[in-house]
């Protein structure tokens, strides 16, 4: 189904038009009931994929990711093999034999020159078969070292080089680069394929993989300006909340008897669900769904922000003010749609009301007033009018 561009709310920002999740999150964060937001999103992007389609798509993505990772690991293995032999293949690329007749050796890891059909001589040949196999060997001699170099550079970048170059490198990053140089990067490549932490991270931290991922999220908050250098976020009243606590930290629940982890939500707090409904779609839109097999739980990121947003709030308005203040103008704010003036809902048909926010309803004249239910809103808006007549 083609996207219905004309059906977009005219006030929806560009990021909200990028995907069904983004548009749905923007609508719900601006007061639209979930059912209304769902219907509008389906009207533009079409119905969501069936569970079978989602499973098939996830399996395809997993297969592609596995192939890419396997290719990177093979490239790294080739580079290590070449280094042990003095880089004969790469050296051959820059040789200057007379008339271009110098042969280039093939990596023995793939069976030597014969594996690619090279005769070892690219000069005078007899018959087309020898010439074509020689050409194939030459192509292989160029492609393999290029792939190996690309895989090695990518591995170095992802295991700390990017932070070192940005001035944020730590001991684990430098250890990783040492390991990469000594081993060709194979240990870290293998660990990345298995979804594990790097050698440097394991040598410098006794933290679990889940806690390390939460630390990465805190780093993301700090880099985007949501948290300061001490991992403190600012709330609407100017107070601070420490979002850097983890490990054995426990918060008291609203009942004052039970406790929770620093990343868990106290759903006995009446404001917790409201805060979660505002924050969780944003987190899922950026980080995706939980993956217990990989011990990846973005829901914990939601819990950390919900605890901050509800820490001093007495009502939903204060929760919303905390969220807007915390997120500021960061990428998180853009994803959540906060700081954007909510679009005015369309007036309902004559004699009807429409819910515009929790506990607030609009009548057919565009007037908004409080009511606990639709029936109460109808009675408050139209029964009095009838009596006056």
Strand content: 5-15%
- The percentage helix is 40-55%
Summed up, the helix count is: 14
For the terminal residues, how far apart are their CA atoms? 50 Å
From the spread of the alpha carbons, the general shape counts as: globular
**What gyration radius follows from the Cα positions, in whole Å?**
30 Å
Mean pLDDT rating: 73
The low-confidence runs, each spanning 5 or more residues with pLDDT under 50, are: 82-87, 89-131, 385-389
Structural class: mainly alpha
- Can you tell me the number of structural domains? 4
What oligomeric assembly is this protein in?
A: single chain
Output the strand order for the largest sheet.
5-6-7
Report on the structure:
- A hairpin with a 5-residue loop joins β1 and β2.
- The protein has four domains: 1-48, no CATH class; 65-204, no CATH class; 209-336, no CATH class; 344-389, no CATH class.
- It is mostly helical.
- The strands form three sheets. It has a three-stranded antiparallel sheet, with no helix packed on it. A two-stranded antiparallel ribbon has the order 1-2. Strands 3-4 form a two-stranded antiparallel sheet.
- Helices cover 52% and strands 6% of the residues.
- The model is unreliable at 82-87, 89-131 and 385-389 (pLDDT under 50).
- It contains 14 helices and seven strands.
Give descriptors for this structure:
389 residues; mainly alpha; 4 domains; three-stranded antiparallel sheet
